């Protein structure tokens, strides 16, 4: 589904490249976990595969089509959903309206968007009453769950999440991972989760570790 | 499509402070623009009305300035300082007919005047009731000449020859009104029909159908048939106490040719002055040009337009209109800049929101559209506020401006007058509508001929009828829309350059 070829990135023109030319492929129906220490370039990697930035060299292909050709705005609108570490919700909308707004922006095919959003929010423990409140009145954990549901609700086949469980307790973290697994296995989406929590990573189908500017696949630890 | 409109509405609903600030600023801008627009339109309307009320008249009369100049010149050359007799030419019938054939003439009033003595009746002499304290200097209304120039005694009755009494200034100004019988028309040419004043008729028990006798200063008698009686509301000035012929009650209207006959054979087919009323004030200058081209002897005759009065009347309005136009432009430009700055600052504050929307794949144009929609909602609220208060502000500012302009204009006029009022020697002044005083018999036609409404006497427009119309509101809405559009365009330059990753990382 997503193919990365000889991709590299650096912040300033004369600074050292962030990666050794990366060649990676991500398949649909799988949940990927990306591990890495702080400052290793995990979030930048997410920005690149989410179409928020362009690689300096190399290319990224979505279903064999270059992102350059698709166009980053179009790519973000149609093919990828992003869960940010800092939620990134629209502050003047309710939890429900945040999701409905995302569904409208991405032109989601769901017919009754409001009902669908309420159902999805209920799955992560946010009832309708809470859903209709302005997001600024929700706790950090609740906002994180809203951000995750927003990404999950959209029709995009690729979901990328940056530390999605960072603000959640263990129970909610497990629930979120369960939902991501369900998205990948039941809806056939490709879910890429960036985390520093090994427990979360081990729940994924494939674990990649970013170390010394390159990705290496990590074997899953026995349960 | 609707999504960004909904977002605009929610954003405004939640950010009440920002919405209020924008509404107040936008309202202030629109109120001033609306005030400018209403003042401008009221000024235009008033100018149009002034144009209509003034009409367009051109007066043909003897070129008195030239005559006096020539007389003075000949006196200096001859060294005969005591001899002050000079001839004031009448307008010959050929010249009148030539000019009457020109285009754009609505009507013409041919006048010839003289003084006679009442024979079979008594002229009204000055009493306390008729005298006023009005200064004799108010002769601008038309009592220019007294007929003394010819060296003959003045009569006690003023004989005003006209081709149509309805076009005589007293009747036009509503200071004279037919109360019985009929007025003088062109059909009265060749007759001895007369229209006399009501007080003169009452005092002498004269009714329509009676005949009255008059004598010219050569004691030649004439019998007039009274066909109409008119009532004059004019008040006699101090001069009329000494000269009965100047008393408005002693004025008798007859046909022009009859007056010429009374004046003497040399005045056959002549006129003291001719007042041309044109169909359009804009044609005045071209009429004068055409008259000159038709061979008008400008050394002997002069053509006076009432354009000067009209121009002076509308001058304050023109200034107000020009000022109002400047207000509209200045406020519109300043408003666009102020609004653009506010929107730019707002957008900087909303960087994060823009980053989120961009990360969701929202198109930049739709984000700009959201900000534009927000400003349109503000515009609608501001339009309501401006619509309610704009007229009051326009009224206040407009009246203040007009008052100021009238004061400035009056000060300028006073200065001009103190330097010597032009035209008093000319008899026919700019207005050309005041009936002249009687002229001296045989000594030449009346000097006054047609008195004038001097330019300084022009009634200033003191009030502006400032009313808010749908057209102005639509115009204001259009301008508001333009301002919003420009403000958003200026502000969106920043949005177009924004990168979601940079925004969200920061």
Automatic annotation (TrEMBL), chain A:
Keyword annotations from UniProtKB, A to Z: ATP-binding, Nucleotide-binding, Transport
| UniProt-listed Gene3D superfamilies | P-loop containing nucleotide triphosphate hydrolases
Gene Ontology annotations for the cellular component aspect, listed alphabetically? plasma membrane
Report if keyword Nuclease is assigned.
no
Q: Where is the ABC transporter domain?
A: 2-223
- Report the GO molecular function annotations: ATP binding; ATP hydrolysis activity
- List the CDD domains hit by this protein, alphabetically: ABC_MJ0796_LolCDE_FtsE (cd03255)
Name the SMART domains on file: AAA
Query: Which Pfam families did the record assign?
Result: ABC_tran (PF00005)
The entry sums up its family as follows: Belongs to the ABC transporter superfamily.
Tell me which PANTHER family the record gives: CELL DIVISION ATP-BINDING PROTEIN FTSE, LIPOPROTEIN-RELEASING SYSTEM ATP-BINDING PROTEIN LOLD
This protein is called ABC transporter
What organism is recorded for this protein?
A: Kurthia sibirica
